[in-house]
Amino acid sequence: MRKIYLSVSAIALVLIFVACKKSNTTTADAKTVENLSGVYTISAINVSTGGVNFDEYASLKDCEKDNTITLLTDLTLEYTDAGTQCSPPESSTGTWKLSSNSDSLYITGISTFPQGVGALIQTWNGTTLVLNGTNEISGHIATTTITLNKQ
Predict the structure, then answer these.
(1) What is the CA radius of gyration of the chain?
(2) How far is the C-alpha of 72 from the C-alpha of 37, rounded, in Å?
(3) Which terminus has fewer CB within 10 Å in the chain: N or C?
(4) 26-32 long-range contacts, Cβ below 8 Å, gap at least 24?
């Protein structure tokens, strides 16, 4: 009888510890306004159309490659001509929002992103944000993938 009591007590104790374990439902890689807010640099821009892939990042001027995009928690953004200055400087402001199901990001106000077009969040791991969008270029449907790295 004592063995049964000890076994039941041990099982109950294990269940209590398991039930009290804290759950981490808010992680750095959750797609929330708070987690996505921050300063980013563009590390890749790839365009695919008609079976042909283009590395648009390689065609950027050096003074554009170090620019930053700051997503603020008030859903405004700042595109800053950081580092090596372009002539004329390419700074601007805009807005951003997260879709209701957190699978897309809408950015307006800067030329790097097509106006009025949402980009699907392909991946987000807390530091790297990869966005996919489709748009029309010279009468052809193109898929653009932009990789942003959080600073």
Answers:
(1) 23
(2) 5
(3) N
(4) 27/126, 28/126, 29/124, 29/125, 29/126, 31/98, 31/102, 31/103, 31/121, 31/124, 32/98, 32/102
Dist. CA 107–CA 130, nearest whole Å: 14
Q: Are 97 and 83 in contact (CB under 8 A)?
A: no
- Cα–Cα distances (Å) from 66 to 83, 108, 146, in that order, read 6, 20, 15
What is the token pair recorded at 133? Answer: 């969008």
Domains of the chain listed by start with CATH number? 25-150 (2.40.128.270)
Strands (E), the chain: 38-49, 52-55, 68-71, 76-80, 92-98, 104-108, 118-124, 128-137, 140-150
Cα 96 to Cα 117: distance, rounded to the nearest angstrom: 11
Q: SS3 for 112?
A: coil
pLDDT digits (tens, 9 = 90+) for 45-99: 999 998 999 999 999 999 999 999 999 999 999 999 999 999 988 888 999 999 9
- H or E element at residue 12: helix 2-19
Query: Whole-angstrom Cα distance, residue 113 to residue 63?
Result: 18
